[in-house]
Specification:
Layout lengths: L2 E4 L1 H9 L3 H14 L4 E5 L1 H13 L2 H12 L4 E4 L3 H14 L3 H12 L4 E3 L12 E3 L2
Parallel strand pairs: 1-2, 1-4, 2-3, 4-5
Helix pairs in contact: 1-2, 1-3, 3-4, 5-6
C-alpha cells in the first residue's frame, strides 16, 4: 500500500476555496477515507488547520473543523518527538526550510514516507522526499 504524508494545505484548500485544486484535494481526501493509501500527518497539522480557518473564516468554524480533522478516517497522527526535532534541525541546515516545514519533512521521513502531498513548493528542494501536488 502506498504511504504518503499529508500537509495541512490539502485539508485547508477544500474548506477555503472552490477551485480545481480544491476538487483535486477532495479526491485525495476521499482516497484516504476509502483506505486508498496509508496517510500520515503531524499533530502540528491540527494547529495549522484550526489557526488558518480561524483567521480566514472564524473561530466557530475553526473549532468544528478541528474536531472533524482529529476524527479523520484512516489518517495516522504522529507526535513531535525530540528525535523528529533533531532531524528537522538537520533538514533546516541542509535545505534552509522554515522550522515547521522541516518538522513536517522529518515526521514524514520518520514514518518511511517517500512522498509528501502538498501545495508548498519549498518541499521540492528536499531530495529525500518527493512532493506531489499542484
Amino acid at each position: 500500500m502506498k504511504k504518503g504524508y499529508i500537509d495541512s494545505n490539502i485539508f485547508l484548500n477544500p474548506i477555503l476555496y472552490g477551485d480545481k485544486k480544491a476538487e483535486a484535494y477532495k479526491k485525495i481526501l476521499n482516497n484516504i477515507i476509502n483506505n486508498g493509501f496509508y496517510a500520515v500527518t503531524s499533530v502540528l497539522t491540527w494547529d495549522e488547520v484550526v489557526f488558518i480557518i480561524g483567521k480566514k473564516i472564524g473561530r466557530d468554524l475553526a473549532v468544528k473543523e478541528g474536531r472533524k480533522f482529529l476524527a479523520f478516517p484512516n489518517l495516522f497522527f504522529v507526535s513531535v518527538s525530540m528525535d523528529i526535532v533533531l532531524r528537522a534541525q538537520k533538514i533546516i541546515e541542509k535545505y534552509n526550510l522554515k522550522p515547521r516545514d522541516a518538522i513536517h519533512i522529518a515526521t514524514a521521513l520518520s514514518q518511511g514516507c517517500n512522498e509528501i502531498v502538498s501545495d508548498d513548493a519549498d518541499f521540492d528542494k528536499v531530495k529525500e522526499i518527493k512532493r506531489v501536488g499542484f
